[in-house]
Amino acid sequence: MKLRLILPLVAALVTVAPVAQAAVIGTYSNIYGIGQTEPAGHTVTANGVVVSESDPTPFRDRFDFSDLAGSTIDSLSLSITFSGAGPNFAPRTFTIFGQPFTINLPTEIWLLDVAPDSSSTFGQIAGLMDDSDSPLTRTIDASTDAALQETAFADAVNSLSLDFGFRELLGQNNAFVLQSATLTVEGSLSVVPLPAPFWMLLSAVGALALRSRYQTKRFQTASSLS
After folding, report:
1. 113-155 pLDDT per residue, tens
2. 161-168 and 72-83: which strand pairing?
3. φ, ψ for residue 71 (rounded to 5)?
4. Which residues face 31 on adjacent strands?
5. pLDDT of 71
6. In sequence order, what are the residues at sequence separation of 6 or more whose Cβ sits closer than 8 angstroms to the Cβ of residue 137?
7. Which residues, at least 6 apart from 65, have a Cβ–Cβ distance to it below 8 Å?
């Protein structure tokens, strides 16, 4: 009877033992603004942080996911919400062969730089920022490294951190407001080993099984002799 009660318990423990599954294993967010995340050296408002070309130090931020050390990381997705980044255009009139022509030329174009190196604000992977696309998400993984011949994903996984920044292409003292940034990490958490009590219980079950088999054999032998 004891054996019949314990075996289902062992089966249940085996069923709920942690296994590695590819999924979202970490989410990290920065909400920018007064009383929240306030980057030093930049103007902070109630709605976010102002990223400007005129800032003495280019805006840079970093997400640390070292709490996932030992896990398998498949991809990193950076998502930002922002406003006022354009792209913006303005009419310019040119005279060609005595005839005026007016065309709209860009006056503001911002790029999101993912994983910029330490020597510049130029990122290994860039994304054109458009107010209509906010929130903007860029995902990097082993395939983007291979396609772009970069090491952005590998570097981030090795350092367990991801840097990002911004650059404006036209140099006209433009600015926009960054409201939030979120990093989503997908992969497989490290497998948690089964606790020692489980193996003790399994040993006890084995002992009970042997004892039950021994007692059954003795009973059968005694019955054949009587």
Report:
1. 887 655 455 667 788 999 999 999 999 999 998 988 888 999 9
2. unpaired
3. -90, 160
4. 180
5. 96
6. 77, 78, 79
7. 26, 28, 160, 161, 162, 183, 185
